[in-house]
Please model this.
Amino acid sequence: MKTKPDYRRYLEMVAKRMILVHKLDTLIKLILRAIVRNVHTKHAVLFLHDQGKDEYVAHVSRGKEGLKIPSGFAKIRKDNPLIRYFTEKELNIFGRDFLISDRLNYFISSKKAKKDKKLKSFLENVRFQFSLYNAKACLPGFFEDKLICLFLLGQKHDRKVFTQDELGYLSVLSSDAVMAIQNARLFEDLKTQLEHNRTLFLQTVKALATAIEAKDKYTSGHTERVSIYSMILAQELKSMGKISRKDWDKFVDDLKIASLLHDIGKIGVKETVLNKNGFLNDEERLEMQKHPLVGFSILNQVDEFQEPILGVKYHHERYDGGGYPEGLKGKNIPLIAQVISIVDTFDALTTDRPYRKGLLKEEAIKIIEENKGKQFSPLIVEAFLKIYNSGKI
Amino acid sequence: MKTKPDYRRYLEMVAKRMILVHKLDTLIKLILRAIVRNVHTKHAVLFLHDQGKDEYVAHVSRGKEGLKIPSGFAKIRKDNPLIRYFTEKELNIFGRDFLISDRLNYFISSKKAKKDKKLKSFLENVRFQFSLYNAKACLPGFFEDKLICLFLLGQKHDRKVFTQDELGYLSVLSSDAVMAIQNARLFEDLKTQLEHNRTLFLQTVKALATAIEAKDKYTSGHTERVSIYSMILAQELKSMGKISRKDWDKFVDDLKIASLLHDIGKIGVKETVLNKNGFLNDEERLEMQKHPLVGFSILNQVDEFQEPILGVKYHHERYDGGGYPEGLKGKNIPLIAQVISIVDTFDALTTDRPYRKGLLKEEAIKIIEENKGKQFSPLIVEAFLKIYNSGKI
Model:
């Protein structure tokens, strides 16, 4: 003798798992599995309302025998008879909790149906929808009187009709599922908004950085290239595994910002110096060398830029201590600045300047190698050579 | 005869409401109410784990008789006997599901307790904690083996002991509550992150805008004042109700950005023109008048700036069509640009310039009034006068 399934326990378990699943796709799979496994149907379809398009999109369980929905039936519109049955009061003559195909068939061939041709024709259309999806039962999921989803259930493996216990389980499950779906949607909306804001932020920083770069007419595209090179170099440093950092992701985010803004301080350098066609004299060089500190003081107003400003402030320091503004040495130079320093130099060497043509990449690499332990940290040079040799830059 | 309470139904109802409450405070009230009302206790206390401080913070129901927690007992540390009872396996001798004061008392005065003085002393400390909160029962809330919360229940109104049904209800409620709390916390974290990112974004835009403003040495603080005035004026326009917009909040956000960036295009204007100490000649004026279009082309790279760029591009248009860059007229000038135009002019008039001292506010207002229907839209002038007359600017 089989023991009676404990639907209450099933529901509690499913509900508990559902509330913490915030990926809609995963959630839908979880719900469909909870139906197919516990009620033992051959398959189950969940039609989920798409708010944007105001239509219902099908998700199908991978039950034992599955169900291949013909393309074109993967979505149903809100004027589909199945939807109308639950959303139009005068149409749900068997109640709004569920709709069973047997009952539908019985009614259609009854005397009562003959009298109401319009209703009969409507229910025949509903039956046709049932047949399309091999469905034996249909349950709605409402949220505040809005039809959020619709479950279509295939035949049970034992070919028997659905019991009251099963239908009760399904009803509660459907209403729990609606809550979980709404919850997951809210989460996805928030996450989308977060990603969206991140993009907006980076686009804005990039637009402003590029605008400022435009003042320096010899360095077109420099900012963008430096930020691309930095990302590649950071990736290499991470995979080399010689630097132990827990927060690589945060570091990469900060590096991106620092790379975009590393020359922001040039806004404070005189145009005549910035655009001088030739070598700078001492006074002009000092004017130019203000830019890391100007950049620092601009970005220092932004609470969250503690790490990026280090990149901006120290990207002209040298490993041997001969750089500016502070003459920091070796490991005292923040990693973020070391990364920018090398890619900044590489890009400067390989692009044309008013007073010289850009070097070939291999020539620039030679200079960088020669400066290992002098201008640049040996480890960073090692990583840089790796990305050069593998053709990544 | 009283009907037996249907705890199953209570649970389903509470669980359903809980999942959609994402404000932790509201959720906690809901949970405590579900205890006090359905189990009829005089009060209930929820100790909720604070991840940051690794302590448990008390939230008290406003049951009929309430409970005033002496200050100092509103938080308990993780070494509190109540917490230790549930987190240390060897201590929870009555099981980990709940702890009842009667059972505790019984054990403490038993022979068994006499033999294990250490345990007895520990349980006496637990009992002391019970007495502090007038508690008769205590239930834990675990999430993945972590103690997230602890419920302390006061006496029932009927002074009887807790029934198995009640304890069963409370156990499931506690575990549902933990899920809902974790869910709400995730929501709050995401929302905090969103707000945080918004702040970061505005701070960054402001820092960069200010940096660019610094090029124009006569306009210190202009950007900030324009953005403050815009916000006040937008508020006034909204409350006047003469402009019908569904999206005022979005408009205000966009206006904030546009105000901060309205002069961003000055980055493309020659320093000599920007900083000229005197009136500009025709050629210089044309150079200066490039700035709205330069600003437009900088910000045009940012997808989401459709509305802000209109403010930047058109803030030098005039209501009578005599402005630049396009000579737009009347209602063809986007509202966002009309707002910036008037506050920009007001600030320019009231601050010192190299070739003249700033006007008094009342003098500037007079000029603005004279320009009603000429430089400025009559409606905007009307709103501007209101904020001036009420002392808001």
